[in-house]
Design brief:
85 residues; alpha+beta; 2 helices; 24% helix
Length: 85
Amino acid sequence: MFAARAHAPYSGIRVGAVAVGLSGSTHEGVTVESAASGMSLCAERAAVARAIVDADGPIVRIAVARHDGEPIAPCGGCRQVLAET
């Protein structure tokens, strides 16, 4: 899965997300961490941003997965963005 492409040198938790837009098209995103943690980008928000760039909103479905198969849920910030898109 593409979660392995995430940039997670600090947490080691590589996450990928796929957002499905109104058209049914899929938009992938991965986690991109920064040493300044507030500047990091979660996979979910990356996928939503890609859907918006592709003019394929609103988001009708999203899937989130870790590279190692362990369960993961969107953080509060991602839940807010998903609720608004």
